[in-house]
Amino acid sequence: MTPTPSFRDLLNSPVLMLGFGFGSGLSPKAPGTAGTLLGLVLFVPLLIWLPMAALALLIAGTLMGSMICGRSADAIGVHDHGGIVWDEFVGIWLVLICLPEQSWLYWVLAFVFFRVFDILKPWPIRWADQRVANGFGIMLDDIMAACYAIIIIWGLQTGFL
Fold first, then answer.
1. Which residues of 92-131 are buried (b: 16+ CB within 10 A; e: fewer)?
2. Residue 107 is inside which H or E element, if any?
3. DSSP state of 80
4. What angle do CA 96, 102, 103 make, to 5 degrees?
5. Contact of 136 with 90, CB cutoff 8 Å
6. Distance (Å, rounded) from C-alpha 42 to C-alpha 40?
7. Cβ neighbours of residue 32 under 8 Å, at least 6 residues apart?
8. How far apart are CA 53 and CA 57, in angstroms?
9. 50 vs 56: CA distance, rounded Å
10. From CA 95, how far away is CA 29, in angstroms rounded?
11. Considering only CA atoms, which of 104, 113, 109 is closest in space to residue 142?
């Protein structure tokens, strides 16, 4: 059985609190989906009302993500534990910030396409997931899934798909 921290553990460790997405990664079913949903809900208002702050958060979250995910994995002794969802936060934020427009339709498309690519991991996402280690590896496959989602959404928007 994979060790999962308690919410009390998260309260005692800021890195675990971030790594486990403010507790969303503790969801007993589909923690990645729960983390993605919370990441979306937290980011959309910031993106609408303070877009430059949203961009700054995306950049900081990406730059700090390898450390957050790596230290969270080290703390619980499991590389890329399903409950570590900071990578899902950054992935959905990247898709959201790159949308053609901010609307309910595009937010739903962002969520669905990001989750599909994060779960299915088409080439080269699966390759990166299996071969790139540490916190960077935890982050990389989600950033790649975000890029796939962005390409599909823009392909639909422009009529290329």
1. bbbbbbbbeeeeeebbebbbebbbebbeebeeebeebbee
2. helix 104-120
3. T
4. 115
5. no
6. 6
7. 82, 85, 88, 115, 118, 119
8. 6
9. 10
10. 23
11. 113
- Between helix 86-97 and helix 51-76 the angle, nearest 10°, is 160
Per-residue pLDDT tens for 103-161?
999 999 999 999 999 999 999 999 988 889 899 999 999 999 999 999 999 999 998 86
**115 neighbors 32 (Cβ within 8 angstroms):** yes
pLDDT at site 2: 60
Q: pLDDT category, 1, cuts 50, 70, 90? A: very low
